[in-house]
Design brief:
The protein has 132 residues and is mainly β. Helix content is 0%, strand content 39%. The chain starts with 6 loop residues before the first strand and ends in an 18-residue tail after the last strand. One of its GO terms (cellular component) is T cell receptor complex. This is Ig-like domain-containing protein. Pfam families: V-set.
């Protein structure tokens, strides 16, 4: 049986809070990567808030957004247990890129970057899979 490369489709959108001084930009709307490789989703931000936590969420087809991780440029970080092995982010003064290692077809989803917590952190091991 032939094992060809499968492409992973990743979609990003941004969530903007109502503050006029806050801005989030995810320049890559669509990304495709072969299984087994790493991919980095970009997120640039601007905020005047002294409490600048950055959040990443994933939303698979027919499912609610789920919390992936939180980062702060002051060193605070948290990653949901189901994403700790392959998902990581390092925050800088104006960006918080999300890197997914060993990308899988099941990673095909919409990814959200946000300056505010927009989805309650869910304690669940259930993951709905979506293949594009």
């Amino acid at each position: 049986m032939s094992h060809g490369l499968r492409n992973i489709f990743l979609f990003t959108i941004f969530i903007l809070d109502c503050r006029s001084e806050d801005k989030v930009d995810q320049p890559d709307e669509h990304m495709t990567e072969a299984e087994g490789r790493s991919v980095t989703l970009q997120c640039k931000y601007k905020t005047d808030s002294p409490q600048d936590y950055l959040f990443w969420y994933i939303q698979r087809a027919n499912d609610f957004p789920k919390y992936i991780l939180r980062r702060s440029k002051y060193g605070g970080e948290d990653t949901d247990a189901q994403f700790q092995e392959r998902f990581d982010s390092k925050v800088s003064s104006n960006s918080v890129p999300l890197t997914i290692k060993d990308v899988r077809v099941s990673d095909s989803a919409v990814y959200f970057c946000a300056l505010r917590p927009t989805v309650r952190k869910l304690k669940s091991n259930h993951i709905q899979k979506h293949v594009s």
